[in-house]
Amino acid sequence: MIITRNQSEIIAAIKTAKTEKPDALIGLIPTMGALHEGHMSLVELAKNQCDIVICSVFVNPAQFNNPDDLATYPRTLFDDKKLLENNGCDILLLPTVEAVYPDGILPYEINLEGLDTGMEGTFRPGHFTGVCMVVQRFLEMVAPDKAYFGKKDFQQLAIIGKMAAIRNLAVEIVGAPIKRAENGLALSSRNALLTDQQRENASLISLALKNGMTNYELQPENEAIRAKIEAGFANSEFTIEYIAIVNNISLKEVAIADENCTVCIVVFCGKVRLLDNMQFADFASV
Ligand code: PAF
């Protein structure tokens, strides 16, 4: 695996990799490191669909609205490199803040047509501006044919698709299914911040979602589904930040759920913020 640290190194590495196959398809997986099986499923998907797989590891300061969150974000570079190497990543992009933002973090304007106003947009102001800024930068640096993102960050995936369309970037944004631990916990870099016991108890999140969504057609009202999900957390160590029942395309809250909707949830376990979502289409009876 070739390691590159800035734009000129990544361009040179891609040029070399393309010498034998000039029309080789390039797949990019942008990450913030602390890699796990979820990221490796993106690598696997990219390997199946592309000829050259590039992964970036960069903890993007522009997308953290809480300095504590940035400071405590898990960093496991040594293990990340091993995991990527073992899973067949061809090129690792490991830039400094200066390489990503040579002119500093400048104001960034984008009209995401409301996709960024609810959910994470409400609780993490400025977050999606930072995400769009860094993803656009990586897409411009690497110019991949396809870029891969996990569906666990449901709102982020929709917003990155919108950003790529608005900016006219010639890239296909690919969403990959959520990877879950055996107990149902959605894999996330932040799980590394949980104790073993908390990780075990966090099976509650997917269980609560499933309980709230099973047979939803019998009582599809937003409030009824929400109440069932909330009940799943009664007397637990988890506190709910939000539960949103939204249309898959507009990301707007709906009054009545149908198979075009998703439940997005964020809970805290102590200081650790955990995201999950499930789609009603997976619970529809027909
Ligand atoms: O999902 C993430 O890990 C980050 O938000 C991303 C897309 C790599 C941008 O920093």
Description:
The protein has 286 residues and is an alpha/beta fold. It folds into 2 domains: 2-176, 3-Layer(aba) Sandwich (Rossmann fold), CATH 3.40.50; 189-278, 2-Layer Sandwich (Pantoate--beta-alanine Ligase, Chain: A,domain 2), CATH 3.30.1300.10. The chain is 36% helix and 19% strand. The chain has 11 helices and 9 strands. It has helices spanning 7-17, 37-49, 67-72, 77-86, 97-100, 120-123, 127-142, 154-166, 196-201, 203-213, 222-231; strands at residues 2-4, 26-31, 52-57, 91-93, 146-150, 172-176, 238-247, 261-269, 272-279. The strands form 2 sheets. It has a 6-stranded parallel beta sheet with strand order 1-4-3-2-5-6, with helices on both faces. A 3-stranded antiparallel beta sheet has the order 7-8-9, covered by helices on one side. A hairpin with a 2-residue loop joins strand 8 and strand 9 (272-279). Helix 10 packs antiparallel against helix 11 (222-231). The longest helix has 16 residues, at 127-142. The radius of gyration is 19 Å and the shape is globular. 38% of the residues are buried. The mean pLDDT is 97. The chain binds pantoate (PAF). Pantoate is lined by residues 30-32, 60, 63, 131, 134-135, 149, 153, 156.
